[in-house]
Amino acid sequence: MPANIPTAPNDAPTSAAWADELIHRYAQSGPRYTSYPTALSFSEGFTAGDFTAALARSNAGQRALSLYVHIPFCRKICFYCACNKIATKNTALAEPYLERIDQEMALTSRHLDHQRPVQQLHWGGGTPTFLTLDQMSHLIDRLDTRFGLSSDPDRDYAIEIDPREADVLTLRHLQSLGFNRLSLGVQDLDPQVQQAINRHQPRVLTETLMDEAQRLRFRSLNLDLIYGLPLQTADSFAKTLGQIIELNPARLSVFNYAHLPQRFPPQRRINRDDMPSADEKLAMLRITIEMLTAAGYVHIGMDHFARPDDSLAVAQRNGTLQRNFQGYSSHAQCDLIGLGVSAISRIDDSYAQNSSVLDHYAAAIDEGRLATQRGLRLNRDDLIRRDAIERLMCDMRLDLAALGERWQIDAPAYFRPALASLDQAQQDGLIVLQDNQLQVTPMGRLLIRHLAMAFDTHLPNQDKPNYSNIV
């Protein structure tokens, strides 16, 4: 590791501390808390009018903006995929969609103070690199016209890339458009696993793009991996991890595959007999943490890892890390505007989600109205609990005294039921509660979703099978 990179803290369970029985006991389903309350609490009683009112209220806070653009198209379906996507090879189908995105921008931006900087931009999908280079340029121009994009070197402008759909020319074009961070989907480098999930992607495709990204001085590069896929074993996944460590990405997201074929039809193409057992998946998780921390990565929390000098790790050390619908973010306190089918916005004290059905989204925009299908305006209790859950999941600690000061409450008394429900977690060594400080232990980082659930008052009324397993 270069001498100027700070050493990673001891933030992973040691072999002696690792307890398979304990993890199995806590391995229930639960939210990822990219929002609180979660999307299952959104109501169709929340309308486009409620969303525009939230946009107007948000101007008073003068928070910077974060823009998310959902591009639902991809050329080929991966069997594990749980995203909102449309499989097609016809890039012309993107044209009317992009026109509607522009109309949505116009409908949204008219309610915003145009002096608010766009500090964060994220294109997700689907496969954003499904778009042609000209279409990408056109979309950036429209975003700049409607919102005013930033040239600040501290901006965080990211795009998800399918290495099978991009080349070095694509990266050069993205850099010219202002993107400074890339996220590459890899999932697994084992050819047999790739065949089982319908995603043929030789290592050379990923390696070539990473080399070019480094040459072009992109600020940060993330790789996505998934454990628990068909035909994976602990040994085979360790080989993939070894190759990934050689490639030295700044960030890694190592997701637990959630097999929910009843909700995501492409997953029905996966042979359940090829799926690894719960014990094998746990072995993969253990190997992942051991190998990545040994290689110098900081375990940010759950399934995210970063080099100590990456902005995610720096933000966590500074207490400014945030959760949003794209996961962990180094840009705290931005108002998030989601554009496109199924996109979710977090504005002021409200969440708003567009229709997840393309035809319904298109019909709304064509009628000159926002495509808001559902959402939620948070009450004071929701806001307090959102703050608590976010700080717990981002800082891996919760300062009850500071929380109480921010909200003018007696936080230990306010959260007495939640803290009482964590007694067993404290006995099991997942947390330490002392002097109004709740500190998550290394083992607790793996189960942070369970710890956060203690503060969630909406969860008892929800159907837990709608959530993936915690580990």
TrEMBL record:
S-adenosyl-L-methionine 1 binds at Y68, G125, E160, I344. Keywords: 4Fe-4S, Cytoplasm, Iron, Iron-sulfur, Metal-binding, Oxidoreductase, Porphyrin biosynthesis, S-adenosyl-L-methionine. Its EC number is 1.3.98.3. Gene3D superfamilies: 1.10.10.920, 3.30.750.200. PANTHER family: COPROPORPHYRINIGEN III OXIDASE, OXYGEN-INDEPENDENT COPROPORPHYRINOGEN III OXIDASE. It is an enzyme of class 1 (oxidoreductase). It comes from Vreelandella arcis. InterPro entries: Coprogen_oxidase_HemN (IPR004558), Coproporphyrinogen-III_oxidase (IPR034505), Elp3/MiaA/NifB-like_rSAM (IPR006638), HemN_C (IPR010723), rSAM (IPR007197), rSAM_sf (IPR058240). GO terms for molecular function: 4 iron, 4 sulfur cluster binding; coproporphyrinogen dehydrogenase activity; coproporphyrinogen oxidase activity; metal ion binding. PROSITE patterns: RADICAL_SAM (PS51918). It catalyses: coproporphyrinogen III + 2 S-adenosyl-L-methionine = protoporphyrinogen IX + 2 5'-deoxyadenosine + 2 L-methionine + 2 CO2. This is Coproporphyrinogen-III oxidase. It comes from the Bacteria. GO terms for cellular component: cytoplasm. Pathway: Porphyrin-containing compound metabolism; protoporphyrin-IX biosynthesis; protoporphyrinogen-IX from coproporphyrinogen-III (AdoMet route): step 1/1. GO terms for biological process: protoporphyrinogen IX biosynthetic process. SUPFAM superfamilies: Radical SAM enzymes. Monomer. Residues 59-295 form the Radical SAM core domain. Its cofactor is [4Fe-4S] cluster.
